[in-house]
């Protein structure tokens, strides 16, 4: 079945943006407030839609039209955003978000560029078989690594784990993060696998860059009791990841 493309005068059902207002390049973030912060970096920025967790902005960066959209927390809701952007004619999507480090040297304030994602989410398995890989576009990944390195922050790249659980349970363990750590996964987050799969199904370019705001495998972080993503060291990494994502989006 060919990917769906909506006409220019259509309105996206859940994003509530008009197709004609979308650029062919989109930066996606989880937090609506972060989407608003990104819009402040754009020229000629304007909000074109706001519905539920989906806040959408239009503007230009370095003279290139871009769309910025928030997708909320978790792969299922984020998949709605990614799918509707693709149906609206977007041909390049870069995600910028936060993630937990999974290797001892991937610590608070670092940046991770994803090469691909472990599909430990729930939604991607309803789109393609388990054997289908969730991969970022190689050219965008290379560009994101270079752009992130230019910020002067500590940069890592590799496989990230996409899972649905944020706070741990003392009943069952959920995704076996220690196993994925041994396999070499560098970070854990909640949406990249869905993005990579949907992008592949639509034949569009995609990439993802993350600011590290903790390490769920560190002894002090296992219960998430002290989780605080609002520290200055994390804010600097978030800004660096957004800068890299915007530059690669229009490159």
UniProtKB/TrEMBL annotation:
Catalytic activity, as annotated: uridine + phosphate = alpha-D-ribose 1-phosphate + uracil
Domain of life: Bacteria
This enzyme's EC code(s): 2.4.2.3
A Pfam family it matches: PNP_UDP_1
Annotated ranges, domain Nucleoside phosphorylase: 25-224
CDD domains registered for this protein in UniProt: UP_EcUdp-like
Protein name per Swiss-Prot or TrEMBL: Uridine phosphorylase
């Amino acid at each position: 079945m060919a990917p769906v493309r909506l006409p220019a005068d259509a309105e996206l059902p859940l994003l509530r943006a008009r197709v004609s207002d979308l650029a062919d390049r989109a930066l996606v973030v989880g937090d609506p407030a972060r989407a608003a912060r990104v819009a402040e970096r754009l020229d000629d920025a304007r909000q074109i839609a706001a519905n539920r967790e989906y806040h959408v902005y239009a503007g230009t960066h370095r003279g290139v039209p871009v769309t910025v959209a928030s997708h909320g927390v978790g792969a299922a809701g984020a998949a709605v955003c990614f799918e509707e952007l693709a149906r609206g004619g977007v041909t390049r999507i870069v995600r910028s978000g936060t993630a937990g480090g999974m290797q001892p040297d991937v610590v608070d304030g670092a940046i991770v560029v994803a090469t691909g994602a472990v599909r430990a989410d729930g939604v991607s398995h309803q789109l393609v078989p388990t054997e289908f890989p969730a991969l970022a576009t190689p050219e965008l990944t290379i560009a994101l690594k270079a752009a992130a390195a230019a910020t002067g922050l500590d940069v890592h790249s590799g496989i990230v784990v996409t899972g649905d659980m944020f706070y741990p349970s003392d009943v069952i363990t959920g995704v076996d993060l220690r196993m994925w750590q041994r396999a070499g996964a560098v970070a854990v987050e909640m949406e990249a696998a869905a993005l990579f799969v949907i992008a592949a199904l639509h034949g569009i370019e995609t990439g993802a860059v993350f600011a590290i705001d903790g390490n769920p495998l560190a002894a002090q972080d296992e219960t998430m009791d002290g989780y605080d993503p609002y520290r200055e060291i994390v804010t600097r990494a978030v800004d660096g990841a957004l800068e890299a994502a915007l530059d690669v989006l229009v490159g």
